[in-house]
Amino acid sequence: MGDRDGDxxxxxxxxxxxxxxxxGTVDATGVLRAFVEAVPTATLVCxxxxxxxxxxxxxxxxxxxxxxxxxxxxxxxDVGETDRTVAGEPVSEVAARASNAGGSAPDDARTERFxxxxxxxxxxxxxxxxxxxxxxAGGEWLVVGFSDATARVAAANERDAExxxxxxLAGTVPLALFRCTEEGTLSRWNGRLASDSGYEPAALSGTxxxxxxxxxxxxxxxxxxxxxxxxxxxxxxxxxxxxxSGERVPYRLSIGPVTDGDRVVGAVGVGEDVTEAxxxxxxxxxxxxxxRHNFRNDLNVVTGFTARAIESIDDPDLTAELxxxxxxxxxxxxxxxxxxxxxxxxxQRPSPRPVTLAPAVDAALESLDPxxxxxxxxxxxxxEGLVVSAVSFLPEAITELVDNxxxxxxxxxxxxxxxxxxxxxxxxxxxxxxxxxxxIPPAERAVLTGExxxxxxxxxxxxxxxxxxxxxxxxxxxIAESKAGGSRVELSLRAAEGPPSDDDLFSPNERDA
Length: 513
Hints:
- This protein is α+β, with helices and mostly antiparallel strands.
- It has four domains: about 30-155, Beta-Lactamase (2-Layer Sandwich), CATH 3.30.450.20; about 170-275, PAS domain (Beta-Lactamase); about 280-345; about 350-450 and about 460-495, Histidine kinase-like ATPase, C-terminal domain (Heat Shock Protein 90), CATH 3.30.565.10.
- The chain has helices at about 30-35, 60-65, 70, 90-100, 105-110, 150-170, 190-195, 200-205, 215-230, 275-310, 315-350, 355-365, 370-375, 395-405, 440-450, 460-470, 510; strands spanning about 40-45, 55, 110-120, 125-135, 140-150, 175-180, 185-190, 235-240, 250-260, 265-275, 355, 375-380, 385-390, 415-420, 430-435, 475-480, 485-495.
- The strands form four sheets. It has a five-stranded antiparallel beta sheet with strand order 2-1-5-4-3, with helices on both faces. Strands 7-6-10-9-8 form a five-stranded antiparallel beta sheet, sandwiched between helices. Strands 12-14-15-17-16 form a five-stranded mixed beta sheet.
- The longest helix has about 40 residues, at about 275-310.
- It starts with about 25 loop residues before the first helix and ends with a helix.
- Mean pLDDT is about 80; it is low at about 1-25, about 450-460 and about 505-513.
């Protein structure tokens, strides 16, 4: 091969297009070469009849991988890996259309465009080619321009692959997935949204998301979208999807922003039909209320009649057995009360907020049953100013721990210590409730480790309730032995990032509301 920038060999073959100078004294090759060298992009000039390449500029040599001398020994179809375009059409037929367009046709009508694989492999080369005829040196020539399309095609293929992956995932997820434009209209969605709403996919295109919901709950969807677009924050809401047939379906939406730099340019969301969950929650709520009401009333009857029986007999053994009945009934009553609290916690789904720890501990001790509180010596060492991230039910967790520490201690004067300290990491605060009692049985501790079994399980909900409250605020719970030989329950609570709110003080009435 010669130098890529070397002069092409002289070709004195007459052109069928009559491209030679009419006087016959000037060879058109020099004119053609001067023409292509004036073009900054990769360009060839070909004989429109034979498609023989007559001139090539340096940019074409660099792009196509052949020096200019070699290119002028080739025909246009020889440049590619095959003589067909990416679409499968012979390059010669495309060139023929460009040649037959005629000089009188508009520029856009005279240009033929196609993609062509010039080199296959790694790295390959795909080009965008544009063919048109031009009058040069008194004759008609086929001018071919090339631009490298490899990166564009690779990016498009990657986007197509990602789109196929997203579509595949969207088709397998049992939830409605959608994307909204900056105006809040649907631009993409999966089949689940179309199925849930009852609309044909084509009917959803350009539909405002809010219009899919009934008038009573449409504002909730609008407010969630406004928050996403205004604050670039995720938002969630519950509404009723109004189907094409007029059915109102309970629906839960979670929506997040799509951003371009600092600007929100759309939203993506997940929708879920919660009909079954709503029915289940409603039925469980009814069942719980009925059971709790009958449970409490019947046990009160049991304790009342048993107490009267105790007063009317003198048999010590029988009296002891009847007292066990009363103790068992009272334990079941406390279990029912704890279940009520658990139901309230799960239904309200509270969010963490900054809480000043000392007032929360004070409120917890104030809500203790006075008969229980008076039995024990409770020591408190909680520094002022400790602020933690917790849910508003935190005092109830502390009350539960202190109540258990006293109630299950057989000493004449049980001793309980409630202490708190900021951990060295400064991101966590430790709250410890320690006692000198018999300790928490292994079966009770198992609720925290997942080792509880049907044959050996916890007898109450107390530790479950405490653990749920603590974990709802992002904390953890750990049980160990205290220095006095009893139990040591440590709540690790996240330190709050902001100051406490004005309503961070707790009272039993507030929590029972």
